[in-house]
Amino acid sequence: MANPTERGAAVDRDGLPVTALPEALAKRPRYPLAVGTGETPAASEGCRIVRSFRAILLAAMAACFLGQATIASAQQAASEPGGPSIVRNIEGANERMEMIVNTSRILTLNQKIKTVQVNNRDVLHPTPLSPNQVQISAKRAGVDQVNLWTEDGSIHTVDVLVIGDARELEQVLKTHFPESSLRVVPVANSVRISGFVDQPEYVMQVIQIAQEYYPKVINSITVSGVQQVLLHVKIMEVSRTKLRTLGFDWAQISGNNIVASSASGLLGAVGGGAVTTSGNEDFFFSIVHGSNAFFGILEAMREDKLLKILSEPTLVTLSGQQASFNVGGEIPILTPQSLGTTSIEYKKYGTQLDFVPICLGNGKVRLEVWPKVSEIDPASSVELYGVNVPGLRSREVKTSVELNAGQTLAIAGLLQNRVEGERRGLPWVSEVPYLGSMFRRTSDRINEIELIV
Question: What total of structural domains would you count in the chain?
Answer without folding.
Answer: 4
